[in-house]
Specification:
Two copies of one chain form a homodimer. The first copy, chain A, is an alpha/beta fold. Chain A contains seven helices and six strands; from the N terminus they run αααβββαβαβαβα.
Chain lengths: 199, 199
């Protein structure tokens, strides 16, 4: 006995394919869509097709964009000689929020992770090397996540960049602003000590 | 500065309208859709439109269906003289899973809830009364949730049904099978005691 209409079951299945969405949640979301007015359901469907159709990676920095060149790469007021390397598009947003960085970005779209079968060829390393090889780049700031894989990826890329006469730096490690020392792990504290600065 | 392409932002906004989906999750889901092959993204969009277009309520029992009459109401082997009243379509599934009930259903699409501004006119009570008034119904089993609102709704409907010479029953209260007594709340235990049966 099929309990739900086929088209409702199909929509539930589609939702349950999404990451982190289980069967119960998928059902709830499908019911929600049914409760929407026709035009809102259509708008949701259109947004999916539209995003998929319009969004591609910027040929320069590999960030997601719907323009030919992304707005950051296209911005003449930004320092073209410094490139900040991040793992994911959302990391660009995190960096931009700090309002501290005025250079360009390079989005790797992942980190090297042998356990997940992600090799250096699966992320946009080649594109970065080509950008640097073209010249005009003074410094590359590695800003991959401060975890094992982000670390390893940063090390790998910095080794490739070494012969290219470009300064390679890394975001400073230390205790997060506004955090409490008693909750900081020992590795973070020892890195913060190593990197201590005069005040 | 707009960090994301407009169409990606739009898709993220659409996801974040879904119940229980916050900003971060919406972003993750939008990225996931971008990572899908074109045909799968299209299939997702189609499923939304299709479900919205095909699914309606059964004119008899008010359950969701894409047929003219839902498969349960259309099934001649089921007992047409007993109607089980549930709050939501998913409750029909819960009942069917027990394989114990062979009558028909009536889906209220909600329960009376003054706090949420849901009155008896917002749920399908009228349709139930019309069904019973037509005759041929011997018993109505109230199977709304055993909480305050489900309870109140069941009481309200049973009062309306009383003059119609139909037996109105309610699912038994008691300790859930497979549960542990020490975790059962006192109201459940007192109801289980009241309803105790000879073995």
């Amino acid at each position: 006995m099929q309990y739900f209409p086929a088209s409702l079951q199909d929509l539930t299945d589609q939702f349950s394919k999404l990451p982190g969405i289980g069967g119960k949640t998928a059902q709830r979301l499908a019911f929600y869509v049914l409760s929407l007015p026709e035009n809102e359901a259509q708008a949701f469907a259109d947004a999916i097709v539209e995003a998929k159709r319009m969004v591609h990676t910027c040929p320069v920095c590999q960030n997601l964009t719907d323009k030919e060149i992304c707005p950051i790469c296209d911005d003449d007021t930004r320092d073209q000689s410094i490139i900040c390397v991040v793992a994911e598009p959302k990391d660009v947003i995190a960096m931009e929020r700090s309002r501290e960085f005025n250079g360009l970005y390079h989005v790797l779209h992942g980190v090297i992770s042998p356990l997940n079968h992600v090799t250096q060829d699966d992320i946009r390393v080649k594109e970065l090397l080509q950008r640097v090889a073209k010249g005009g780049v003074r410094e590359v700031v590695m800003a991959t996540n401060p975890d094992t894989e982000g670390e390893a990826t940063a090390m790998y890329i910095s080794r490739l960049l070494r012969p290219m006469e470009v300064k390679v730096t890394r975001l400073a490690y230390g205790v997060p602003v506004g955090s409490q020392l008693e909750y900081a792990d020992e590795v973070t504290i020892s890195r913060a000590l190593e990197g201590r600065q005069e005040i």
